[in-house]
Amino acid sequence: MSVKTFTTADLAAHSSKNSLYLAVGGKVYDCTDFIDEHPGGEEVLIDEAGKDATESFEDVGHSDEAREIMYKMYVGEYHPDDSAKKPKSASSMTPKPIPAGESADSGRLVSWVKSWF
After folding, report:
1. 30 pLDDT exceeds 60?
2. Cα angle value 31/34/36 (rounded, 5°)
3. Quick one: how far is CA 115 from the chain centroid?
4. Cα gap 23→56, rounded to integer Å
5. 80-112 pLDDT, tens per residue?
6. In angstroms, rounded to a whole number, what is the distance separating the alpha carbons of residues 20 and 15?
7. Cα angle at 95 between 84 and 82, to 5 degrees?
8. What whole-number distance in Å separates Cα of residue 33 and Cα of residue 71?
9. Mean pLDDT of 4-33
10. Domain Cytochrome b5 heme-binding: where (predicted)?
């Protein structure tokens, strides 16, 4: 089974009471069916809906039981850097040509070489 990866935009698409996802500690949880059961009230979840709620979650000091409940709601991994899913395009890896009559000073040459690694 492959694990779904969520970007910031993916997570933000689930920010309503009808589809409420939270990221905590790099993992994404579908809390939609838990809204009415949350001991802290639904407003707490709705305020954090579609976001990385790690800091808010840890600040409250949730119990081991709460963490076990979350385990059942796990839907994927959170990668806030959207570019992590996208490979570099060929055009971004192609060096810019040096116009005729100009020399490549060492700074530009070093930058160009570093862009390949």
Report:
1. yes
2. 130
3. 25
4. 11
5. 875 445 555 555 555 556 565 555 555 565 565
6. 5
7. 15
8. 14
9. 95
10. 3-79
Which one-letter amino acid corresponds to residue 104? A
- The percentage of the chain sitting over the pLDDT mark of 70, rounded to a whole number, equals 68
- pLDDT of residue 29 exceeding 60: yes
If you compute the radius of gyration of the chain from its CA atoms, what whole number of angstroms results?
A: 22
In the predicted model, what is the mean pLDDT of residues 19-48? 94
* Separation of CA 58 from chain center: 18
Show the tokens assigned to 67: 């963490």
Distance from the Cα of residue 27 to its chain's centroid: 9
The pair of structure tokens assigned to 7 is 């970007």
Residue 5 phi/psi, 5-degree rounding, is -110, 130
